[in-house]
Amino acid sequence: MAEILITHGSVITLGKDNRVILDGAVLIGGGKIIAIGKTEDVAKRPDAKGAEVIDAKGRVVMPGFICAHHHFYSTLCCGLASKPGSNFVEVLENLWWKLDRALSLEDCVVSAQIPILRAIRCGTTTIFDHHASPNAIRGSLHAIADVVRESGIRASLCYEITDRNGLDGADEGIAESRDFLAEAKADTTGRLHGLVGLHAAMTIGKSTMDKCVKLVRDTDSGFHVHVAEGQADQDDSVSKYGMRVVERLHEVGALGKKTMAIHCIHITDHEMDLLAQTGTTVVHNPQSNMNNAVGAARIIDMLKKGIRVGLGTDGMTSDMREEVRNGLWLRHHEHKDPRVGFMELATMLLKNNAAIASDAFGQTIGSLEVGGAADVIISDHIPFTPLSSDNAYGQILFGVTAAPVDTTIAAGKVLMKHKEVLTLDDEKICAHAARLAPDTWKRFAAL
Ligand SMILES: [Zn+2]
């Protein structure tokens, strides 16, 4: 039975059909798309009777955005004074490895609520998160999953396993991951997914790596791991193991179709070949890379080699509209050629992220098609220049990205209607975070 009928939209389906339907409608029920077509046709269907009508009034109607790499736990660093790091390792030591140790379980909850709320506001309906809270490991993924359930978005969660807090800390991370993978597998909403999170090869010794590979095999899962974000990751791998990071991950059996290798900035052609041969996904995070001054990943070369490269934000934002634009400017700047990168960035955000999410959640996500997931947004972008399937990417990258989102729907449920978020209370959550943050910052300063 239909529950929602979006009418009079400029519908961009993306996906294999990549259709544009002017004065289009989308009929939704049971979390799926039931029908899609011209408003006059869809509205006449007998099963559309009684559905809640949302008039898009000419605005763009399209699939919700997908963020392929995020860190909810970074939320409480907003405004936090930390000693500036002069290189990537110092940034980790001075900021992130202190902030995560300062987090309580309650901090983890608000740290997830705020970026998820902002995701709903900017039309991001699926997020792959990588979580760390070394002094509040057990129960952290379950607590974040509760926020995901309440919010209505989809999320793939993992705990960042690492030896940097001792082998006991690593074992606790493995236990938390095992429990959450079971929880995600038992979930019936289709909105929760789990991976095995590794910080990075440089903080994982042989024994922990072996245990993690076993966990992935036992659970038929994949890894979500930072790869060669800084040169230090490669230097560590070569000095300790006599091989480069991707070679080490390949040797232990960590690469594969379910594994997400994040960043991959300092990798060689041979490492790219290994990623391509094993079907490993790479996720690019341009804003974070520029902020940390770690270099520009060779995404054009990776895409040419057939690697599925997706787009994430690395905790910088929940807004994929902002991220894709920054990714495009970085390509222009890096190649000193304004012709480079448009199709690649559009492909990463609109095609590859959709494939990554569809594979993970086992349903069609990131395109509007009958039987697919009803993750739909209405953007305030009313096309004021011709819109067709030939220029839909251009309308999205230069129109939709520059306009507010009006309505966000995930799994057939309205999460934000006409800019009012219905599932999470913005003011209550921010007030709660503001009460917690001073103590979190005190713990941070004492570390
Ligand atoms: Zn990251």
What do these coordinates show?
Helices cover 42% and strands 21% of the residues. It has helices at residues 39-42, 88-102, 105-121, 140-151, 166-186, 206-219, 231-241, 245-251, 269-278, 286-292, 299-304, 320-335, 342-361, 392-398, 426-446; strands at residues 4-12, 20-29, 32-38, 52-55, 60-63, 65-70, 124-129, 154-157, 160-161, 192-194, 196-200, 223-227, 260-263, 281-284, 309-311, 376-379, 405-410, 413-417, 420-421. Helix 8 (245-251) runs parallel beside helix 9. The chain has a domain at 4-64 and 366-420: Urease, subunit C, domain 1 (Roll), CATH 2.30.40. Helix 9 links the parallel strand 13 and strand 14. Zinc ion (ZN) binds at residues 69, 71, 130, 226, 262, 314. Residues 69, 71, 130, 226, 262, 314 line the site of zinc ion.
Please give a handful of descriptors for the protein shown:
binds zinc ion; 6-stranded parallel sheet; 447 residues; 42% helix; 15 helices; 9-stranded mixed sheet; Urease, subunit C, domain 1
Q: Which CATH top level class of the domain at 4-64 and 366-420 fits?
A: Mainly Beta
- Distance separating the two termini: 56 Å
User: Which superfamily, in CATH terms, is the homologous superfamily of the domain at 4-64 and 366-420?
Assistant: Urease, subunit C, domain 1
Shape: globular
Structural class: alpha/beta
| Low-confidence residue ranges | none
Radius of gyration: 21 Å
Bound small molecules, by name, code or SMILES, are:
zinc ion
- Helix share of residues? 40-55%
Question: What summary fits the major beta sheet?
Answer: 9 strands, mixed
Write down the overall mean pLDDT: 97
Examine the secondary-structure arrangement and name the CATH architecture of the domain at 4-64 and 366-420. Answer: Roll
